[in-house]
Design a protein that fits this description.
The protein has eleven helices and four strands, in the order H-E-H-E-H-H-E-E-H-H-H-H-H-H-H. The protein has 231 residues and is an alpha+beta fold. The chain folds into two domains: 95 residues, Glutaredoxin (3-Layer(aba) Sandwich), CATH 3.40.30.10; 115 residues, Glutathione S-transferase Yfyf (Class Pi), Chain A, domain 2 (Up-down Bundle). Strands 2-1-3-4 form a four-stranded mixed β-sheet, covered by helices on one side. It is globular, with a radius of gyration of 18 Å.
């Protein structure tokens, strides 16, 4: 049995079963990605609720696992060579879990690269741009009088949504078969309701994205991930 006591984070979030993968997360879009993957694969895991408050994500215990002070992060007691592996960054965790299980990463080398390509698109584009737009539409940024920051991120969000809309023409899932690319993208599209931003980004003019979102959240794992760990 793996001994996870060497990881300082376990002092603040105690481990009940050290044989299970340990998830330290909160059900934001980035957190939902990994929870969705764990639910889809059926890997045994233990979820620890790490709120976004400084007392949690900036605590010495959490920073010992993720120096970038962002959720999610994991400890896999059965990592490469049978040794525990600590990992942060949602995209990296998705890739790791896909390689570990042999699931949701495409059937061929070419498929694999297509999946990775769209994971990177989400990590570098869709997620950051929708997050920044949300700041200027719903949170503190909405009180800034200068309209240019808001306009910049709304415009870029529209562009990215249209890229996705075009990609989905004739496709059920973004990389062919359902994959970690969809698990990366779907939760971020779900933020548009929360931000109240659908009219701003021209949601009703999108042909393929709305049905894609419905398909994604119709999956039990995607629904469950909305509340893992429970808020």
């Amino acid at each position: 049995m793996a001994d996870l006591s060497a990881f300082p984070i376990t002092r603040k979030w105690p481990v009940e079963d050290p044989t299970k993968l340990q998830l330290f997360s909160y059900p934001t879009p980035n957190g939902q990605k990994v929870s969705c993957m764990l639910e889809e694969t059926g890997l045994p895991y233990e979820a620890h609720r790490v709120t976004l408050e400084d007392a949690n994500v900036r605590s010495p215990e959490f920073l010992s696992l993720n120096p970038n002070n962002k959720i999610p992060a994991i400890i896999d007691p059965d990592g490469p060579g049978g040794q525990p592996l600590a990992l942060f960054e949602s995209g990296a965790i998705l890739l790791y879990l896909a390689e570990k299980t042999g699931m949701f990463l495409g059937a061929t080398p070419a498929d694999r690269m297509t999946v990775i390509q769209w994971v990177m698109w989400q990590m570098g584009g869709l997620g950051p741009m929708l997050g920044q737009m949300g700041f200027f539409v719903k949170f503190a940024g909405k009180d800034i009088e200068d309209p240019r920051p808001r306009e910049r991120f709304v415009t870029e969000a529209k562009r990215l949504l249209n890229v996705l809309d075009t990609r989905l023409e004739g496709r059920e899932w973004v990389a062919g078969e359902y994959s970690i690319a969809d698990m990366a993208i779907g939760p971020w599209l779900g933020t548009l309701d929360f931000y109240g931003a659908k009219p701003l980004v021209g949601w009703d003019g999108l042909v393929n994205v709305p049905a894609y979102v419905d398909r994604f959240f119709a999956r039990p794992a995607a629904q469950a991930a909305k509340n893992i760990p429970p808020r």
